[in-house]
Amino acid sequence: MTFTEHLEDLRKTMIRVVLILGLSFFVAYGFGEYITEFLLRPLRQTLNDMHSGQIVYLGLLDKVMSQLQVAFWTSIIVSSPLWFFEIWKFIKPGLYAFEVKAVRPFLFIGFLLFLVGVAFGYFIVFPLTFETLMNFGVTEVQASIDLKQYLVLSSKVLVFLGLVFQLPNVLLILGFMGLVTKYSLRGMRRYVYVGFAVLSAMLTPPDPYTMLGLWVPLAILFEVGIIFVAIIVHPYLARQHSE
């Protein structure tokens, strides 16, 4: 394919991804009330446990705008298998046959990792973060949590964690494409760990325990990716080259 043909193929892929997200958005908006209640549950549980604070909305349109935002981010999560597949179809022509055969199973693994990341955020990161923030600083004060701000932030965090948990999958695919090896990944380990520390500090409250709560899973995911590259990619590529 020429460069122009690649651009045309990319344009068609982007159009299909937008259509998938658009249809998913309308479906998610129809269930917006239930999704909102689902996102509010960890925060309400923390507020009830501490007997302090309430969730409020400050503007007449805040409920509407927050539900629109929640529907958008939910559509990204729900439709992820479909837009994963579209991205795969775009990448596939650039791979050799043995690379296609090797990478294909990891599309399903990628979706599972995405769901694991979302579950990790909802069941672990959210309760830990809420409890830490509520106990931080002065006490004997009531919290008034902005509904819109919370829903938008929580939705973004869940999508972000779903993408972050793709790290082992990404390393495997890069390994099959010959872009990384177990040796190159081990060599960049110290720099990756520092990058994870900076990212964790930016995304979590000013508390070392919460920061470690994000840094440790990131480090584990990176190490799992290295192990997978070593035990799956290297033997597979060695067999293919010998054949």
3D structure, described in words:
The chain has eleven helices and two strands; from the N terminus they run H-H-E-H-H-H-H-E-H-H-H-H-H. By secondary structure, it is mostly helical. Helix 1 (3-30) crosses helix 3 (62-78), helix 4 crosses helix 6 (105-135) and helix 8 packs parallel to helix 11. The mean pLDDT is 84.
**By helix and strand content, what is the structural category?**
mainly alpha
Distance N to C terminus: 27 Å
What is the tally of beta strands? 2
Mean pLDDT: 84
Strand content: under 5%
**What pattern of helices and strands is seen along the backbone?**
HHEHHHHEHHHHH
Please outline what is shown here.
The protein has 243 residues and is mostly helical. It contains eleven helices and two strands; from the N terminus they run ααβααααβααααα.
